[in-house]
């Protein structure tokens, strides 16, 4: 059987590296044929060498020029359209979308238009432009397979049942590193503390989103679009051990859950091999050794980002795009020390309140995205670190 050719967008990130690691374990069944990143060209070139890849792309045009100068043997594309060009140009069977931020949207649409399997980790395209992404997948008949562990869990459970049997999706949340802190303690949280996630090792943006519970809010959007369920059918359950990756409750009261030790290589591997399964070396779950699994309700009073996400998901239109863009700006400001931890939901709330919503076609989504970034920047400046 010929090896499946894989393009990895966001190759230098946490998901991109783990995708290469699990491909290595699957014994040549999947081979990378193109790799892309934003500006980290040194690690990208190293990866290309390790895996014998020649086709690469960098979003940052200056970084691409540096790479071209250093490595004339590589086929390098550079600039904001480079990832989409790479996807269009290089023959492949699977495109892994693991770029952080809304920058993932255009390359993801390019991948869907290619009618190949699109294995996506990036949340932002479905949050901000869920309708456009799903329309595109349907129109082109492309396969959209989730990598995010909770979404993969629901995807796996859904395979066992007819959609009409599902009464509720039980979306589990690790709760992040600050689940026990008071409101006052949360206000004093630093970027360094927020970046130390207890269970998962992820990129900085998604790690901060996990600490504010915005990440869980984003997953509500992913589920809502991918499985076409009303937001009210999605219930968040705090589960600190991250063993139950999510569950579905059926109308006869039965609950199906997907469990494993927390390791992103599991869901990445499944997105590649689906609907088949392959043997791998990942550590096995020993339930008796784990002892206790706990479940709790989220506290949206202390973690208002989750409430804001539900509200934006219910409101629809361009509110989700605004939420997504304002969150990118607020999290970046928090990481730079320009905004306090509690300032993140405050900025989002103000920007959402100020927004004049429009129907969510792609043009309106991109306009709302630009507007929200500018507005959030001003709110960050006005609010500062207090
Ligand atoms: P990282 O920050 O570790 O990596 C991000 C990757 O995207 C890097 O390769 C980076 O390149 C690239 N990138 C960033 N901006 C651009 C851009 N404008 N154009 C092209 N490439 C870009 O993030 P993660 O791997 O943790 O997460 C990636 C996505 O997957 C996010 O949407 C996240 O929410 C989602 N996700 C992550 C999980 C995880 O466990 N990490 C779990 C579930 C979902 P460079 O190195 O050059 O900056
Ligand atoms: Mg997740």
Would you mind describing this structure in some detail?
The chain has a seven-stranded parallel beta sheet, with helices on both faces. It has a four-stranded mixed beta sheet with strand order 9-8-10-11, covered by helices on one side. The model has no long low-confidence stretch (mean pLDDT 96). It has 17 helices and eleven strands. Helix 5 runs parallel beside helix 6. The termini are far apart. Among the domains are: 4-146, NAD(P)-binding Rossmann-like Domain (Rossmann fold); 316-386, RNA polymerase sigma factor, region 2, helix turn helix motif (Rna Polymerase Sigma Factor, Chain: A). By secondary structure, the protein is of the alpha/beta class. 48% of the residues lie in helices and 15% in strands. Strand 5, helix 5 (105-113) and strand 6 form a beta-alpha-beta unit. Residues 10-16, 37-40, 59, 83, 98-101, 103, 121-124, 148, 200, 202-203, 206, 264 line the site of NADPH dihydro-nicotinamide-adenine-dinucleotide phosphate (NDP). NADPH dihydro-nicotinamide-adenine-dinucleotide phosphate is lined by residues 10-16, 37-40, 59, 83, 98-101, 103, 121-124, 148, 200, 202-203, 206, 264.
Please give a quick description of this structure.
The chain has helices at 14-25, 41-51, 61-70, 82-89, 105-113, 124-140, 149-158, 183-187, 191-194, 204-212, 214-226, 265-273, 287-290, 304-315, 319-335, 343-354, 362-383, and strands spanning 4-9, 30-37, 55-58, 75-78, 94-97, 117-120, 143-146, 166-173, 234-238, 244-250, 255-259. The chain is α/β, with parallel strands linked by helices. Magnesium ion binds at residues 148-150, 219.
């Amino acid at each position: 059987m010929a090896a499946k050719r894989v393009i990895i967008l966001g190759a230098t990130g946490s998901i991109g590296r783990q995708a290469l690691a699990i491909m290595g374990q699957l014994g040549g069944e999947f081979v990378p044929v193109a790799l892309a990143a934003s500006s980290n060209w040194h690690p990208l070139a190293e990866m290309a060498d390790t895996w014998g890849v020649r086709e690469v792309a960098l979003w940052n045009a200056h970084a691409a020029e540096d790479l071209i100068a250093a490595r004339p043997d590589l086929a390098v594309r550079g600039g904001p359209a480079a990832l989409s060009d790479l996807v269009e140009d290089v023959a492949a069977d699977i495109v892994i979308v693991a770029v952080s931020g809304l920058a993932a949207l255009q390359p993801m649409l390019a991948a869907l238009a290619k009618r190949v399997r699109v294995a996506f980790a990036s949340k932002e395209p479905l949050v901000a432009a869920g309708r456009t992404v799903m329309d595109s997948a349907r129109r082109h008949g492309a396969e959209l397979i989730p990598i995010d562990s909770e979404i993969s869990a629901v995807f796996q459970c859904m395979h066992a049942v007819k959609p009409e049997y599902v009464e509720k999706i039980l979306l589990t949340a690790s709760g992040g590193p600050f689940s026990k802190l008071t409101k006052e303690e949360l206000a004093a949280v630093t970027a360094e503390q927020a970046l130390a996630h207890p269970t998962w090792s992820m990129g900085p943006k998604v790690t901060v989103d996990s600490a504010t519970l915005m990440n869980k809010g984003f997953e509500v959007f992913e589920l809502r679009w991918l499985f076409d369920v009303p937001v009210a059918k999605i219930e968040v359950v705090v589960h600190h051990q991250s063993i139950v990756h999510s569950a579905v409750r059926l109308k006869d009261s039965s609950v199906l859950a997907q469990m494993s030790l927390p390791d992103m290589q599991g869901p990445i591997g499944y997105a590649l091999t689906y609907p088949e399964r392959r043997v791998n070396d990942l550590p096995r779950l020993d339930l008796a050794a784990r002892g206790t699994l706990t479940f709790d309700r989220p506290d949206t009073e202390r973690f208002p980002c989750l409430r804001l996400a539900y509200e934006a998901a219910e409101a629809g239109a361009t509110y989700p795009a605004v939420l997504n863009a304002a969150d990118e700006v607020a999290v970046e400001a928090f990481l730079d020390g320009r905004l306090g931890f509690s300032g993140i939901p405050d900025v989002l709330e103000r920007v959402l309140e100020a927004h004049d919503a429009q129907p969510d076609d792609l043009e309106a989504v991109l306009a709302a995205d630009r507007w929200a970034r500018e507005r959030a920047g001003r709110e960050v400046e006005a609010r500062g670190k207090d």
